[in-house]
Please model this.
Amino acid sequence: MKPLFEVRDLVTGFGPVRVVDGVSFRVAAGETYALLGESGCGKSITALSLMRLLPDGGRVVSGSVQLGETDVLALPERDMRRVRGGQMAMIFQEPMLALNPVIKVGEQIGEALALHQGLAGQAARDAARGLLDAVGVPDAVRRLDSYPFELSGGLRQRMMIAMALAGRPQLLIADEPTTALDVTIQAQVLDVLRRLKAEQRMGMLLITHDLGVVAENADRVGVMYAGELVEEGMRDAFFSAPQHPYSRMLFEALPHTGDGGRLTTIPGQVPKLDGATRGCRFAPRCPFAIARCRAESPDWQELNDQRVRCHLAGALPARQERELTAHSVKQAGQQLLQVDGLKVHFPIRRGLIQRTVGHVRAVDGVSLDIQAGRTLALVGESGCGKTTVGKALLRLIEPTAGSIVLGGERITAKHASILRRQAQMVFQDPFSSLNPRMRVADILLEGMDALNVGAGSDRRDAVARLLHQVGLPDDAGGRYPHAFSGGQRQRIAIARALAVSPQLVICDEPTSALDVSVQAQILNLLKDLQDNLGLAYLFITHNLAVVDYLAHEVAVMYLGRIVEHGAATDVLRAPRHPYTQALVSAVPRIEPHDGAGIIRLAGDQPSPLNPPDGCHFNPRCPYASEVCRKTYPEQTELRNGHWVRCHWVAGQGFSAGRVD
Amino acid sequence: MNSIQPVILWTDALIFALLAAVLALVWLIRRQEHLLAPWRVVAQRPMAMGSALVLGVFVVIGLLDSLHYRERLADSPADAPQYSVEVLSLFDALLSELRARPEKTYSAPLAMHLYAKEFVERDGATVRDYPRLQFGGAHLQHADARLPDIARRTLDGAMQGALAGLLLFAGLAGWQARRRQMTPGGWLATWSRGDLDWPGRTVVLVVAGMLMLTGVIVQLASGYHVLGTDKVGQDVLYISLKSIRTGLVIGTLTTLVTLPLAIGFGIAAGYFRGWVDDVIQYIYTVLNSIPGVLLIAAAVLIVQVYIESNPEQFDTAAARADIRLLALCLIMGVTSWTGLARLLRGESLKLRTLDYVEAARAFGVSNTRIISRHIFPNVFHLVLIAIVLDFSGLVLAEAVLSYVGVGVDPSMYSWGNMINGARLELAREPVVWWQLGAAFAFMFTLVLAANLFADSVRDAFDPRLGGRR
Model:
């Protein structure tokens, strides 16, 4: 079959740096080709090279890009504008940044329609409505007159897709189309993309770092590393037997369900692309590397349905199944943290005298317990208030109501310093959580100085010990944060929290900004620290795989309240609340599974400013009944301390009882 | 027995305090890698280095002009010395030739005759003619010899400047070659290719150009009034050079007043928010809504009245003019901090929500410490950019204010006063253009150099421009 789209030996350079180095692949009509790789491997630059939208300084050095009969790289810019959007279209990662905030979405789609189909006026409006219907936007007519800020993230991404489809492209390039979205919304958007591809027989180039997304959407997979394609194959073959050591290690770095063992990490970092590289680019990090790997760059080796660039292709030892060790079942220690009825309401002020006209109920009556040395995961979609809970616990946000008891002492504003000695926080973004103007040693010393931990003379030694503890080199203390990679920065942030020897560490999505292989390193570190120091974690995350790996207990939050709580295995293996069920089933999985049983949630999370009456979840719940719309459900006890707040579960014969 | 008595005017003291502060800052920056890196970028840009050299010349003149003294009167007794009421500076001493050659009134640049006709005695008869100048071209016998003389002096000056430049360059080449352990020829080859890690060609060319210009001016000035004379016959070149100090004082001391206000209020408003923010915002909204000229005029008048009612506190005319200059700096500082404060408020609002500030708060670090360690270092680049950009604006503002009549003391040399003085003469036929032209040329050079330098500084500190330059 003649491919729709073919890239041959594409080389893109920024000055002397070859960011994309000899990439070749082809996409057939109706096929999804996934380009998989970690950040910095050149996959986005590949996409931009194809569209000829490279940022300043970037230049396609050589190679050819063939779309149907057209040689894309040879077109003059004038004709290229017709190709962009008309024959190949692109969806970007950040839907908020890709839509113009001051123009109604209808007009933005109309612009694309006018350009590529020559439609105007009512005809364009009808076509736009048709597009919105196609991408599954409810109430399409009204949505055409909305501004982007009025739409949720999922809707915005659908608008982007609608706009990309306006030119009836043959090829759709989707650059991390769902990375910024929550899992339930991600599932919706991916469904739309799959359906459209099948209906319109488009070719799709899906760029992502998420193996789960690849497994559920791709027909063929290409793995990129350091600007090169290192492996290519049909999806099933790739997932059952990845051939390149790098692909294998990516798989092994993923936390699996029910797995308590250590994750495989890839040592080192992606090499800088500026120097003349000799040999295989992965060799310095490859555990199987032989002398030949360092001297000679490997060529493509064919293996059945797969192609791989590795000298050892087919000769690698068989993959070892990681042994499944159960969680270290430490007996529940003493109660460390007890939170009762925590509420955080943000007043909304309007008018000249700043009258309070309402409250955003970010956190609305959350109760939690954490035992010493255990991990509680707080799970929920963005905007459900989980980060606010973490910050309110540390009194970084003053709670509106509720009591916090830490280590047997009730924490009030007066003895916040006790709290600060015992509880610390690790933040999501390692780039904004370290002051770029301070040296690492000063960052670590800051907490000790502020809380007067230890004698002044011992603190320097403490810094060296902390650096060692989190696996950083000894000379790291004298350097500035910019000298470190994302994973190393997160280690610094962890060391900073540990500096005052807390018993509880609140981890706010500590791995969501990191690549899979680095995430594995950080998760291993967190686990080791828990084993060695007896730390308790409040682990705030939306990533259920991580929860499975690390947490003993899970609390699921929806719109400021906990809707399900229990041991991690119970909640994740046998979720009872319809929301938890949807959340669990929406996570893209790499294991083969049938599409049946996947629960797709309709709509988005409502605003906490104006939550729905009755059960907050009722507008999206497939089982909602009359009572759900009227009253908020009480706790329904299941077994082993597993409880849910759901009328539907309560109606199934479990005894509903108030536990307060 | 001293033949001079040093005089330290208020602005002198502040200028040297500022110089010390800048040196301390340089020392601090040299030790901090993250602060040093952008300056390295600045040092690698030809445009920045060229304008920095021009600025440097202005600054040196300003500093020389800030070392004041009074001469002992020749006939005063040795045991109770009396000093002249005239306050001179080291720069005056260097330019004594220019200073002490007054003509009667206007004369055009490089002229040997006055600009106005007068009755002169010639051969026993009184005729109305352009009289000869007392000093300008006095060495010439005949008017025909003027142009060849000017050409010769120009050529001589250029040659001398070029020679000095060559000598300096040879010295530089020898020193650099030894330091880098190359032959001087090898270093010259690298230099001419522009392969040095600093913009060698630009620096050498700018220095050579300035030396040649200096040579020409020195040569011409010994025989002529290079930029003519003003209404009272004073050399315009001298006035222009003396005005440099005034411009620099206005540009720098005002910033010194602005900075604490802008940094303090701006960061406080952004960091604390709430009522602090409200109060500060009201203050600067109110301040911004009053026309600045009105405030400045009122303040200058108050100071003027104070000086006149307390003459015993100011023993010389220079001290009186100086205190008025200082007052002008103060009031201009008070009215011009709002822009930077607003900028810093916005930036602090953003910084306070960043995770590292939250992390510090989670440790219970005090607010002052958070501001000094986390907020201030991260807005410092904005402050720096604002200083350099504001400088040129303030120099121009001085000219406008002096023109309006609420600027510096009329007896003080300043470009604004020069323009003010030249204003009426523009209507004359033929026009007296050199006063205005000289003020314009000097101000233009200073402001252009400052702006070009500021541009480079801003680019170097702008993280978005990062790698590409």
